[in-house]
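Weekly modeling sync, notes
Attendees: S.R. (lead), two postdocs, one rotation student

Agenda item 3: backlog of single-chain predictions. S.R. asked that every request posted to the team notebook include the full sequence so nobody has to chase files. The rotation student volunteered to paste the first one in as an example of the format we agreed on. Action items at the bottom.

Example entry:
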Amino acid sequence: MTPDRLEILIQKLFDSRLTEDERIEFNSLLKASRSARDQYRKSMSLHAALMNKCDDGSAAGPFAQLADRPVAERRKIAPFVPRVLLAIAAMIVVFAGLNMIWSEPKAMLTGGEFEAVGGAGALTPGRIKAKTPFEIHRGSLTLTYPSGAEVTLEAPCRFQLDRKEALTVAHGRASVHAPPGAEGFELDTPGGKFIDLGTRFGVAVGSDGSKSVVLTEVFEGEINVETSESKTTRLRHGESRALLSNGNDTELVSDLDSSPIRLSRGVSSAPADRDNLALGKPVFSPGYCVRAHGSIFPPENVTDGRLNDSGVPGDWSFWLAPDGEDGEFTVDLLESQEFSKISLQNTSNRLIHDRGVENFEILVSEDNKIFSPLLEGYLPRIDYLNREDSFPFHDFTFSPVTARYVKLVVLSHYRHPTPRRNDPHSGGISEIRIFR
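Predicted structure, as returned to the notebook:
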């Protein structure tokens, strides 16, 4: 854009000669450039001053005295009337555009440790750009809104700011706290919209491989769940639902795969521990649990750095053996490493309180063929009433050994405290860490 081009368009506006394409071009220039808006305002002021200068030096303007002037003078003044109207209309368009810019969401990135896809340059502390897709693949972050609403997002997560008090989560896990005064905050997902009524609630947005699966639970207060323009469901403290897409409709269910829907309160994901030899290393197993609606629990989950049974359908952070089996898995450190401590975090299967490891054995090998026993151990059941607590790690130390492969064999596992008839069960664990 050149100043001459802008001046030409302004003059055409005053002369009522703007074409439709030029009008679109003109408004685009004004929205894109502050200097262009400043030049336009100066031109408008000058134009208005010239129009308002009457022959007698008064400032009444042509509209107020047009009817009282001689016909000859009216003919001179009249052509300015549509020009002024067009100028006012253009200013309305400009201010509408500016209002759109000024009313962008003002959410601030206020905390967290995370790694963003493509680098964290676009996600730095301060105001977050609207209408821009973001993705984090490790850690968590917190967004704070002008109303006081706070949203914590846990990786892996894809999200976007839409409106001043709204957020869209396409995939991942979110925890929302909307204190008094922040009522009305909206969280959009592929399965439906969650409207806060002054509360704390959590959502997990995932997929069963073909359609979205959204889990939600209300920790305090109430929320409205909108699954269509005509369907709204009120959820209150302690209530939870899964939103399952069914064609053009969404079904709300209180049980998923015969288990009650529960979410850990808040989200947690540890920053990468570079001293952990197992972090991100390959893991293989004779089998793992696969259920409907994206509930799969492969062995590589035990070295992904995500803790406390977090995740979403299709991307849970812990490993479960096939139903009815204790199970085992083997971590490949990719080369021989010397280590003297193994740290384990048990699972409670999304706070259903079953499937965790009770007794186990660890063996090591250089060739994945001949294994030598290293230690036997015990893990207590995870059974917290306060679901904000992080799951504990239990450390097992020993004299330094050198090996490439580390195998954990489950000798016994926990079942549900009140087993149901034909209740599926197996061994499982959330995370393994290996240290020099």
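Discussion: group reviewed the output briefly. The chain has three domains: 3-102, 108-260, 283-435.
Action items: rotation student to repeat for the remaining queue; S.R. to check formatting next week.
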